[in-house]
Amino acid sequence: MLRQPLLLLRAVPSLILAAFGAAQQEPASDGARSQDVLRGSITPERAWWDVLHYDLSVSVHPDTRSIGGSNKITFKTLQAGGRMQIDLQPPLEIARVVHQGEELEFEREGKVYWITFPSPLDAGIEDVVEVFYEGKPRVSTRPPWSGGLSWKKDEQGNDFIATTCQGIGASIWWPNKDHGYDEPDRGMDIRITVPEALTAVSNGRLIETQSNAASETRTFHWRVVNPINNYGVNMNIGNYVSMDGSYDGEGGKLDLQYWVLAHQVEQAKKQFAEVPRTLAAFEHWFGKYPFYEDGYKLVVVPYLGMEHQSSVTYGNGFRNGYLGRDLSRTGVGMKFDFIIVHESAHEWWGNNISMRDAADMWIHESFANYAENLFVEYHFTAKEAQDYVIGCRALIQNDSPIIGTYGRNKSGSGDMYYKGGNMLHTMRHMLNDDDKWRECLRGLNREFWHKTVTTAEFEAYMSRECGFDFGKVFDQYLRTTDIPELVHETKGDSVTVWFEKVVPGFRVPVVLTIDGKERRVTVGTEPVEIATGGKAEDFALDRNFYMTVRAK
Ligand SMILES: [Zn+2]
């Protein structure tokens, strides 16, 4: 996901917050669970079964802006259970639910459906239920920040249609278990039927294209064999052509595919040369690309971009920067294509490793943001990389904590991007051991390979693997809006330093330059005296530490 342009953020904050955690609905007087509790928590009606595979078939009708089809859900029962929660948001409706040839009872409660089995299923069995649905899905007003379908036309008047659904959830366009904790372990099949003049592109590999002469349509069957998060599932429909390539990476030969509109081939050939460069930088820093089996794809869409797994979407206009602008205002941001770099980074941070709860979305966005400067360091210089991450500090709001509300599908502040990136950059400089730091980033992707995780697991892993207790650092930057303030006071021939505006127990090494002499000093809230052998004239904190400095 991308951070909303700040201008708009100020104008309509509700748009974003609405996406994550519909208005805080207090429990109804009869104790009924609120919609955000049903959406955001692991309800009993979700907990007893584990999704193994989704087989989604959907027909798309541009003329009526409607869709319809079914999702065959293969699951394993972890406990006995007979009432299943399936998420599907209005105006879409479930038409039928079939289990072993029998029609099942179902009832709607807002964005949730309760499916009732005639008798409870035993624990430890594998079973399948097929959910048929139809209707006119919500239209996305401002993709990718608002979810739904985009029914657009390309410059040549062809239909150009796409889904986006992070935040509001995948249940805005297909029925599923819409919570991040449970991904289909065996992947997913996606079969999209469209008018025969159009092409449908989805996640993973294209298994088959079938012509349906009678209905003048074609069905495109895509398959993902790796676990995938729900909001990463997408469909993109248009006058596409594809270009193939390959990349020799840590995992061997990686198939690359670029799906662009027929009239964009030349532009794409030039701009998408950035892809192998991006993969090289990220395999260096994060380890091998997580989905060699499914391949890597870049798919042009009628919105800015999004990290759909093995179907990264692109709408940056075939130019560098962020829609041609440099978010860091240092010039460095124009040295790379922001969308290719940021969205591809999510293949590691967000798709390989996924948040179990939306409250921990920083795990996706802080690392994807942080990856931008690591790309610059790999292909340009460390100084330019620092210029970039530090330049982006101007976009930090410190409006609310980065960690959101657990169990409510509610992510935290948009600061998870630039402040999260600066937190990680600061941690690297606290650690002051780049080999260990890189090994930690690679290790996270190994340790949590194709898993859903929590902040607590990340905190424990990073502190353990780095041999550095980052506990208070995480508390400070993820759970408060205060930025550590380093206070310094010169008295006689010494300088005393201490921190203010920090969480209790915050004590970290920083790099100071006093009268041209660089020193690495561990500072907490207790004053630390530094002998300077004469009245200090100059005092500076290394710019790589995201902190403020105040002279007493
Ligand atoms: Zn992102």
Please identify the top-level CATH class of the largest domain.
Answer: Mainly Beta
- Count of runs of 4 or more consecutive helical residues: 13
Question: What is the CATH homology-level superfamily of the largest domain?
Answer: tricorn interacting facor f3 domain
Helix content: 10-25%
The CATH architecture of the largest domain comes to Sandwich
End-to-end CA span: 42 Å
CATH T-level topology of the largest domain:
Immunoglobulin-like
Spatial order of the strands in the main sheet? Answer: 5-4-8-2-1-11-14-13
Strand content: 25-35%
Number of domains: 2
Report on the biggest sheet.
Answer: 8 strands, mixed
Q: Strand tally, please?
A: 29
Structural class based on helices, strands and sheet pairing = alpha+beta
Please give a handful of descriptors for the protein shown.
Immunoglobulin-like, single chain, binds zinc ion, 2 domains, eight-stranded mixed beta sheet, alpha+beta, 552 residues, five-stranded mixed beta sheet
Q: Would you write up a description of this structure?
A:
This protein has two domains: 6-345, Immunoglobulin-like (Sandwich); 485-551, Immunoglobulin-like (Sandwich). Helix 6 runs parallel beside helix 7 (338-345). The strands form seven sheets. It has an eight-stranded mixed sheet. The protein starts with 5 loop residues before the first helix and ends with a strand. The protein has 13 helices and 29 strands. With 552 residues, the protein is of the alpha+beta class. Helices cover 23% and strands 33% of the residues. Bound molecules: zinc ion. Zinc ion binds next to helix 8.
